[in-house]
Amino acid sequence: MLRMTRRTRRRGWQSTFSGLTGLGLIAPFLVAAGVFIVYPFVELLRTAFGEPNGFGNVGDFFQSPAARRTLWTTCLTSLIVTVIVVALGAVLAWSLRTTRSRLTRMVIALAVFMPLWMGAVMKIYVFTVLLERFGVVNRTLTSLGVIDEPMQLLRTQFAVVAGMTYQMLPYAVLPLYAVYVTIDLNLVQAAESMGASRVRALRDVVAPLALPGLLASTVIVYVICVGYYLTPVLLGGATAPFTASLIADDIFNLFEPAQAAVASVLLLIVAGLVILGGLRLVGRERLRRALG
User: Fold this and answer.
1) Which of 21, 100, 115, 214 is a good FRET partner for 144, with 20 to 30 A between their CA atoms?
2) What is the pLDDT of residues 185-214, one digit of tens each?
3) Residues 173, 87: contact at Cβ < 8 Å?
4) Structure confidence at residue 2 as a pLDDT band (50, 70, 90)
C-alpha cells in the first residue's frame, strides 16, 4: 500500500515541467519559426547583399530615381494616412465609448467593422465607382455647382490616401477603444466640475492616459501601410507608386531579384525603426498593455 502511494505521488500532476519536456512542447513552434521566418529572412539578406555587387546593391538601388521616388512616396503617403486614421480613430473610439444612443453606437460600429467584412477587391472597386471621372463624387459636385467639369480623382495620391484610410480605420479605432474603456469617465466630469472646458478636460486628462494606445495605433497603422500593394496599384497607378509594386516589377518584369530584396530589406528597416521608436517613447510594457 505504501509503495502504491509513492508511485501515485511520483506520477501525479506537476505544475512545472522539465527542460526536456518544455523543449518538446515548443519544438513545433521552433520548427515553424525556422521554416517560415528565419530561413526566408536569411535568404532575403543573402539575395540583397549577394550577386551581382554585394553591398553595392544598396547603392544601385538609391542611384535609381524611380526607386528613390517610390520609397519616398511610400513613406510619405503612409505617414499621411497614419495621421488621418489615428485622428479619426481617436474621435470615433471616444464617441463609441461615451455615447448613450444605441443608434449612434450601431452606426459607428458598422462604420468600423464594415471594412473588415469586405474583401480588398470589393473595397477598391467601391472607391473606383466613387472617384472615377463620371462617378458619384464628380456627378454630385457638378450637380451642386461646386465644379464646372469633372475632376481627376482616380489615379491620384488622393485616391490612394482615401482608400487606405477607409481600410485602415479599424486598426486605429479598436486599440483606442480598448484603451478608452479603461479610463474612468468620472475623471472628465471631475475636471469639468473644477472649471475645465470639455476640450481641456480631454487634453489634460484623457490624452495622457490614452497616449500608449495612440502610439500603439500609430505604430500598427504605419507598419501595415508601408507594405500596401493592391490599393496603390489600382487607385493610384503610376502617380502614387509604392515600394511593394516596385518589388513586384523587379521580380516578375525586370527579373532583378537583388533589387527586389534590397527594397524589401529597406521596408523592414523602416518598419523596425517605427516599432523601436514606439517602444522608446512609450516603453515595452505600456505598449504591450495598449495592444492587448
Assistant:
1) 115
2) 888 888 888 888 888 888 888 888 888 888
3) no
4) very low
Measured in whole angstroms, how far is the alpha carbon of residue 288 from the centre of its chain? 16
Cis ω before 52 (30° cut-off from 0) = yes
Tell me how far the alpha carbon of residue 247 is from its chain's centroid: 20
Whole-prediction pTM value? Answer: 0.84
**Count of CA atoms in the C-beta half-sphere (13 A) of 260:** 16
Please compute the mean of the pLDDT values over residues 160-181 and round it to a whole number.
91
Q: Give the percent of the chain with pLDDT over 70.
A: 90
Residues 45, 264 contacting (CB under 8 angstroms): no
With a CB cutoff of 8 Å and minimum separation 6, the contacts of 236 are: 155, 156, 157, 159, 160, 242
Say yes or no to pLDDT of 90 above 70. yes
Grid cell, residue 42, equals: 536569411
Sign of the four-CA dihedral 110, 113, 119, 124: positive
Three-class SS of residue 279?
helix
Rounded distance, CA 252 to CA 212, Å? 41
Question: Residue 134 — φ and ψ, nearest 5°?
Answer: -115, 35
Name the grid cell of 165: 484610410
What distance in Å separates the CA atoms of residue 177 and residue 253, rounded to the nearest whole number? 44
Chain centroid to CA 57: 29
Digit-coded pLDDT (tens) for 55-74: 888 888 999 898 999 999 99
Share of the chain residues as helix, strand and coil, in percent rounded to the nearest 5: 80, 0, 20
Choose among 131, 150, 130: nearest CA to 141: 150
pLDDT of residue 267: 92
C-alpha cell at 187: 475623471
How many C-beta atoms surround the C-beta of residue 167 within 10 A?
Answer: 23
Beta strand ranges found along the chain (DSSP E): none
